[in-house]
Each structure stands twice: as C-alpha cells, then as structure tokens.
Design a protein that fits this description.
Blueprint lengths: L1 H8 L3 H15 L3 H29 L8 H8 L3 H4 L7 H13 L1 H4 L1 H20 L3 H5 L5 H34 L1 H4 L7 H26 L5 H8 L3 H12 L7 H25 L2 H9 L1
Amino acid sequence: MISSKKEEKMLDLRKIKIITWKDLLEVRQNKSVVTSMIIVPLIFVVVIPLIMLITATQTGSAEAFNDPDLQVMFANVPDSIGSQLEGMNDVQVMISLMLGYLFAPMFLILPLMLSASIAAESFAGERERKTLEGLLYTSASDAELFIGKALSAFLPSVLITWAAFILYIIILNTVGYPVFGRIWFPFPTWYALMFWVTPALSALAVGATVLISAKAQTFMSAYQTSGSLVLLVLGLFAGQATGVVYLSTWVGMIVGLVFWLAAGVLVFLAIQGFNRKALLLQKAH
C-alpha cells in the first residue's frame, strides 16, 4: 500500500516530456512568438553592436561616444572594472564600457521576453485555441502538466539566450579586432549574467506569466501584462547609466540570487494555483 502511494506521487518524466514537446510544436505555429524569438535577439546581438563597432572603426576616435550622460558613467567606473580597462586607448575603453558593461543589462531582456511569450502561448494560448479542456482531462497530474508546460518556456529561452551570447562574442571579437588587435570579450561579469542571472530571469518570467495566464483569456493579454517584468532590467540599465550600480561579477551574483528567490516564490504560487478543475470552471465562465 505504501509503495503504491509513493508511485502515484512520483512524477512521470515521459508524460512531462510529451507535454513539453507538444507545447514546443504548438509554439512554432504562433507567428508572433516565432518572430519575437528571431527578431529580438538579432537586434540586440547583431544590429546594435555592429552599428556601434562600425561607427568606432570608421571614425577611429571616441568622439561618437562623447555624450554627457555617458561621461558620468565612465567617470564613476569602480576599480574592479577599471583594472580590466588598463592599457586600452580611448576608443577601446569606450567600446568596452558600452558593449561590455552598459549593454549587459539590456541583453537580459532576451530571457525575460522569450520566457514570457512562450509561457503565455503555452498557458493562455491553450484557452484561446479552445484546446484546454482536452489537455486537462489527460492522465497527467497537475504537477506534470505544470512542469511540462513550464519547461517548454524555460528551456528554449535559456538556450536561445546562450546561443545569442555565443554569437555576440563572435561579432564583438571579429568586427572589433581591427580596433583591439586581439580577442577582448567577454569580461568575467558576463559569465555570472549568462549562467546565473539568465536562468533566474527565465524562471521568474515563467512563474509570473503562469499566474497571469490563469486569469488572462488571450495570449496577447497575458504576454503584454507579463511584459512589465522588463522594468527590472531597465532598472539595472538605468543604475549603470547613472553610476548608481555597476554589474560586476559579485553584483551579478547578488542580483541573480534575488531573482532566484523571487522566481522560487512565484513558481511555488503558480504550482499551488495550477488546478485543472479551477481552470475548467474559469473556462466555462
């Protein structure tokens, strides 16, 4: 009797995998989600860096970056970051600070947007397509349904962000080689951002979007509401731009820890609130 109860409580990984794969296939059919998964990374990883690097290489000077607000940021760079810029000329310093540090928080928009859009499609999208009832009547438990759907948003967003990071490294070192004469990127801060903060933000976005999608009737309403999470990243960007805070490795670790704790709370609440009977009743209303 005891063993049978334990077996009932154990998660069926095969069912979770099937649900995850099913949702990933359905995401491919949503053109708005697929478009955002392609266009947004290209803008952040290719377009913006190329414009800045080409401007610097063509002019051969740092005058293009002589903005008063940027100068405030550069003047307040902490010693831990300044030591990594020793031996660089003005152009190299400006590029390093702009693309290596100031731009770092903006890169974190990728896991937030991707997770939110896929999670909204996975949860609210089911209701909008009127396929929710059939899914909720499957033999999978509530926990298996939730985990399968959550993974369908979490895994792609993290993997796409990591792939974008690799492309960002290639572009910065290739196009920036005439200026630096060597491989100069990434800085240590980025490892904490990519492998600690990025998964935390993805989990945070999934948890928040699931809670929002429980009441949202359409994909767009869920996605637009969860999009407010971008304010977290914009806050980090504003903090660096004004010299209030700099994303050093230790700051990145602390920020990531805060995001993980917040994500844990939201995911816990989402799991507690994920109930197929409640969703069916809500759907009926």
